[in-house]
Amino acid sequence: MSDLFEKIISLSKRRGFIFQSSEIYGGLAATYDYGPLGVELKRNVTAIWWQDMVYRNENVVGLDSAIMMHPKVWEASGHVDAFNDPLIDDKTSNVRYRADQLIEGYIERLRKKKKGEKADVIYQRLIAALNDEDMPGALYRIIHDEEIKSPDSGTFNWTEVRQFNLMFTTYLGPLGDSDSKIYLRPETAQGIFVNFHNVRESARKQIPFGIAQIGKAFRNEIVARQFVFRTREFEQMEMQYFVKPGQQMEAFERWRETRMNWHVNNGVRASKLRWHEHVKLAHYADAAFDIEYEFPIGWQEIEGIHSRTDFDLQAHMKHSGKKLEYFDPQTQERYIPYVVETSAGVDRTVLTLLCEAYREEEVNGEQRNLLKFHPKLAPIKAAVFPLVKKDGMLEVAHRIKNDLQALFNTAYDEKGAIGRRYRRMDEVGTPFCVTVDGETLEDGTVTVRERDSMAQERIAQDRVAGYIADKITAWTNDEL
């Protein structure tokens, strides 16, 4: 793990963004709790996603489906039979890897060594292996033929490649027998598909329209590491967009552009984002791309955009015996809609923003650590300081803080030197600090200091709320 990534993890714990779950008992692997600042950042992410996905699209509505669903849902979707990862163990270090990702890492190293021709050959073998009836065996042969070594131990001492199902099982009711066995949902999408008619009819929607949902999902990840990037309990922001068959590619390209722009508009530099096309399509898809971000641990997926065809509705219609057709009143046609899916991980988006925002700077010979969040996403939008604790400054500062708190999350700090207070707010990403001083008591003005430039401006105290709101609205990526 890189030093930069370790610093981000350390800051996340120290300043109350993310904690290891059940830490006082030694922790529970690959599960995390969000602290006071982490939950604010997470809520800001989901609120902005909902605003942009639902409120700004008149033909997209929301849903909140249950985590526990009838087990036949997962039989119909293919998860019971096909929701597997090809895993391989390093017998020296006892570390487990996704076999396909191990090979992808090897290909990337070849390209960095300017061995592009060989990388292309291995890449073609990987595509063939992923589509082979004996995928585990085909992947193992590539690893064996190329003598790909373990990234952890540096040895070539592997087990065979094996398939592992990723769904958590539990039991409904008091009897833990096979008749009461159910699954914790591994994705939120199926809750949308089984409610297709319920939502469409109650919301009086016609094709094309979308159903959006934010919710928890659970996967028994065998390879679970890299902080909150890969966890067993996670949250998804998904939207399923239903279209007429034959029109899915047009919708697919439109949502691809929309979703990439969303990340850029949240303050992520375009140079740190890229598209990754799936070399092996899932059984339900006819097109699939991932948006990847360049983390300190390398390029990794943060969102997927998939054209799912009509697989899900067809499968649920077959297994449930219920019709899921759509009757088009304009053309008098009946058809099963095709679906374009956008699926972003809340936890991965939060991690992206933490990595993107983290900066180390030298100011007057001292190091300044800061998080350059887009102000609309910052956990704390403003902090209010009395310069000293006397002469009525405390009362004025509290009054300004209470006024700002009605509009956005605001902090108050009266302890320590003013420079230290600025540094504390910089480190958690607070974009604006308001200082009450002697001049405030004389003429009613305060100093507003900006996080990124450290520039200070003197304004009337009754203008502070509007000033900060305008700054948030006007902020652009150019300020990075």
Topology:
Layout (H helix, E strand, L loop, with lengths): L2 H12 L3 E3 L11 E3 L1 H20 L4 E3 L8 H7 L1 H4 L1 E7 L4 E4 H14 L3 H15 L4 H12 L15 E4 L3 E3 L9 E3 L5 H6 L1 H8 L5 E10 L14 E11 L4 H18 L7 E5 L9 E9 L2 E12 L1 H10 L5 E3 L4 E3 L2 E8 H12 E6 L2 E6 L10 E5 L6 H13 L4 E3 L5 H10 L4 E5 L1 H6 L1 E6 L5 E5 L3 H11 L6
Parallel strand pairs: 3-9, 19-20, 19-21
Antiparallel strand pairs: 1-2, 4-5, 4-6, 7-8, 9-10, 10-16, 11-12, 12-13, 13-16, 14-15, 17-18, 21-22, 22-23
Question: Could you walk me through the main structural features you see in this protein, from its secondary elements to its overall organization?
Answer:
The protein has 16 helices and 23 strands. 34% of the residues are buried. The protein has a seven-stranded mixed beta sheet with strand order 3-9-10-16-13-12-11, with helices on both faces. It has helices spanning 3-14, 36-55, 71-77, 79-82, 99-112, 116-130, 135-146, 189-194, 196-203, 248-265, 311-320, 346-357, 393-405, 418-427, 438-443, 464-474, and strands at residues 18-20, 32-34, 60-62, 84-90, 95-98, 162-165, 169-171, 181-183, 209-218, 233-243, 273-277, 287-295, 298-309, 326-328, 333-335, 338-345, 358-363, 366-371, 382-386, 410-412, 432-436, 445-450, 456-460. The mean pLDDT is 91. It has 480 residues and is of the alpha+beta class.
